[in-house]
Design brief:
This protein is of the alpha/beta class. The protein contains 5 helices and 5 strands, in the order H-E-E-H-H-E-H-E-E-H. A 5-stranded mixed β-sheet has the order 2-1-3-4-5. The protein is globular.
Length: 155
């Protein structure tokens, strides 16, 4: 099995792919109970004109398809940015057991930045660890938004 940092490196690769296509650089991978990657995703909101096309949503859909179940019990999610309310809700609904994220999201983060949706009484609470390769995840986002403000292509 890989370490959380190694899984986050895979998510960062997906985030870089998103940035190269002009999408906000967020990537996500889901590891199954045996440690194999069973789901992955990256932001595609611009390309698909779809407000729900977040990295976590794509990864959950592909992991559910791989397992043939909507339950992702004993699975771990690695995402480069703290989940928003929609994605946090999807983590709860899919029963993802462990959530690792990189950068904090001060505008919409639901692991404690704005609120902690996982502390609400939904009957399911994953183990959460923030800051995994956090500096690298934050730097990628910062470079992306700086390049946009300067009218440059994202890298």
């Amino acid at each position: 099995m890989r370490t959380p940092e190694e899984y986050m490196a895979l998510a960062l690769g997906l985030a870089r792919e998103a940035a190269a296509e002009g999408e906000v650089p967020v990537g996500c991978v889901i590891a199954g109970p045996d440690g194999s990657v069973i789901g992955s995703g990256r932001n595609r909101r611009e390309k698909g004109s779809d407000a729900t096309a977040h990295a976590e949503m794509e990864a959950i859909r592909s992991a559910c398809a791989a397992l043939g179940s909507w339950r992702l019990t004993n699975c771990s999610m690695y995402v480069t940015l703290e989940p928003c309310p929609m994605c946090a809700g999807a983590v709860i609904n899919a029963r993802v057991s462990r959530l690792y994220y990189g950068a904090k999201e001060p505008n919409s983060g639901c692991c404690g930045s704005v609120l902690n949706l996982f502390m609400e009484p939904f009957g399911f609470e994953p183990r959460i660890e923030g800051g995994v390769r956090g500096e690298e995840c934050t730097a990628l986002l910062r470079r992306f938004f700086e390049s946009r403000r300067n009218g440059e292509a994202a890298t």
